[in-house]
Sequence to fold (717 residues):
Amino acid sequence: MYELTNVTKKYQQGGRTVTALDGVSLTIPDGQLVAIQGPTGGGKSTLLQMLGALDRPTDGTVELGLANLSRLGDRKLGDIRAKEIGFVFQGFNLIPTLSAQENVETALAPLGVTASERRERAAAALASVGLGDRLTHLPAELSGGQQQRVAIARALVKNPTVLLADEPTGNLDEDTRDEIMDLLEGLWRAQGLTLVVVTHDTAVAARAQRRLQIRDGVVREVA
Amino acid sequence: MVGTSSAPELEIHVYDLPAPELAGRRKQTAIVAIGMALAIALVIIVNSVSSGVRLAQANVLASVYGVGTDITVNQTPAAPGEGEDAGPQRFDFDAADGTTADGTTSVSRTRLEANRGTSTFAATDLATVGEVDNVTAAAATLSLTNTTFDGALPDRTIGPPAAGEAPPEGGPDGAGGSSFNVDSFTVLGLDPADTAVGPLSAMTLTDGRTLGSADAGANVVVLDAAYATTATLAVGETLAIAGTDFAIVGLVTSASADAATAANAYIPIDVAQALSGLAGQVSDIYVQAASSTDIAQVQADIEAALPDTTVKTQAELASSVSGSLATASDLASNLGLWLSLIVLGAAFLIAILFTISGVTRRTREFGTLKAIGWSNGRIVRQVAGESLVQGLLGGAAGIAIGLVGILLVNLVAPTLSAGATASAQAASPGGPGAGFGQAAQVQAPVDIALTAPVTVSVILLAAGLAVLGGLLAGAIGGWRASRLRPAEALRSLA
Fold:
């Protein structure tokens, strides 16, 4: 469960201070599917970075389960990212020189998994997203939808408790968008994940149990 | 194994192995590896040629001073005192000298003298040197030159022709002329019982036998093989030294096939002293120190014990090697060293810059890896592992190129000429005019083919440099990558 209390995040940008998050308080129970919408520059990505233990707030607290993410050091935050949190990015962010299987294995590298187990789990994760026959393909040899599937396999191979998706369908056409959303929704149901999706796309947001709107650093519930 | 917590240091396996990662960046890998390879090849070649040059210098010295000689002692000749004979060698003939036949008088005279420009000193100094601490062996030699003057001149009993008389007859040309020959060769007297130190120690016997302790006082001679060939002499024949016939018992060459030996003829020192009238005199003492660290002390002690002598160490002798060998030595040690340092520095710089630019280009990649939980240490190891592999690829290629370069040097085997300035010197093989007015310190030019030896240490040095270059570039690149904040790394590409 996420518990955000009075979270404020300020950046220095070109000599002036930008308030990306302005006193956000928010609770996300375990297993919820949440969509976050809002205009560009409204604070969506910053909120996702707070949830993803990628950054610490300037003020306020971010708790994930028993861990206070706003107080932990870089190493501890890295451990939490490695074990608890899966990321899916708009640009897929696969490593271009590695095969699909090797890309998925990178998520297991920090967990002290043996090489053979790593290969097995990566292959199984790729099979679960429908890419069991694409293990040795490089990202450039895969379509956008397939690349995002590899990224989803990479995010889920470590069995995280949270999956954070930043515009996961932003680079995909409508058909592929629906495929990917079906896949994410299916995995969310099957694994009991907390799934947070940042999206511009109302069709994507409509699938969520709960919709949040963020504008000027302030979050409000969308009925 | 990657990812096993028991062996985290092996996680430089680069996402599993560096191979797939580096194969995907062939261009960068190739440029860094080629730069490293050229630098390492240059280091190997320069290093190898330098040791070849040093080897050549050692050969030149060994041929003149013998193997194992650390220090030589001799005496600088003093300027001739007033009334002393400072002129050139003289051969005086009385009216009754020579034999006359057919109007021609033949004369012949041989002198065995200390080399011009060398000075002899008491043989008792050898004992003094032997008593110095840390001297393990010392041997004395007497450097001599045997000069034979022979000639034919017209019968001096015939007076100048009176007016209207026929011109004189007789003499070598039958018209009253004269003809003279001068033949000289160098003779080195040495202790036949002790050949461990001194010039003979560096020589290889090619025929007959060398001198032994039983030869003391005997008229036996060992010849330099090159001189024997020139003078058409062989073992079993005799050579006249100072008018005394010596049995030729052996022939020697320099241990280094390229260099001449120290003298033309080697005889027992007691015989040399007696024939030259230099009883109890020696011209050089060869000293071996207990260890290389004792040389300075031994030199100082000998100088203190024998203040009139000149005491030189092998290192000082090395500086006396001259000619193109010395030039090559300077070239190898100065230009070669700086060139390889500069190229090595450039290669390291290229590796570092390419690694840093690679890290910058891969901001998204490292940001993503950090987002999915990679620690800074893991990322540094990743980048360092990749660089190390690039360095090793370059190192392996560099060693291969370097070995080819060394092979080429050895195939071409450029000839260097060298001279060692020394008192114990081989004069040019005898011939008319030789031996007269020789300069005090004669150069015996020696042609040495340069060989570039390959040593394990050079290969290890190259491998070490490859690892060092790879790790250096990797450490700097990895440090850059680890400083990326994941949020900013990801934001920068949004």
In short: The interface with chain A takes residues 1-5, 11, 15-16, 20-21, 23-25, 364-365, 367-376, 378, 485-487, 490-491, 493-494 of chain B (CB under 8 Å). The first helix of chain B runs from residue 18 to 23.
